[in-house]
Amino acid sequence: DIVEKTSKACKSMCMWVLAMDCYSKVFKTVEPKRERLKVARTELDKMMAELKEKQDALEEVESKIARLQASYEKSVSEKEELTQNIGQTQSRLKRAAKLTTGLADEQVRWAESVKRFEEEIGNVVGNVFVAAACVAYYGAFTSLYRERLMNQWIE
Asked: Residue 141: left if φ>0, alpha if ψ -120 to 50, beta else—which one?
């Protein structure tokens, strides 16, 4: 205001000098901050690139872990299935052994039955004869006489 009273042109010059002085002070404080900002942004860009690489590597590791986990679960389920099959096979083997033992015992019985049936086949004609004779002759005779008749026919 004092300079304005003296000269209006001088006032503008003083205002410009004060503005330049203010700009110089601000520039002196802002310029180092701009430089630090530029350095910080460069460092941030480097860090972001490094972070991106690390995230990609992490994603790759996580996908590998997922594949391994799936493979592990598949292997565990196969193991369970095989364990179950082992149990079934063991029980089948036990039942087969029992069946084989049972059939071996039956073979002895069947062999005895075959022998007995072969003997009876040899006696079929005689048994039929005795049965026919009994039907024909038993009707009118007493039980003692019937017994004697049958014993004679058998001998």
From this structure: beta
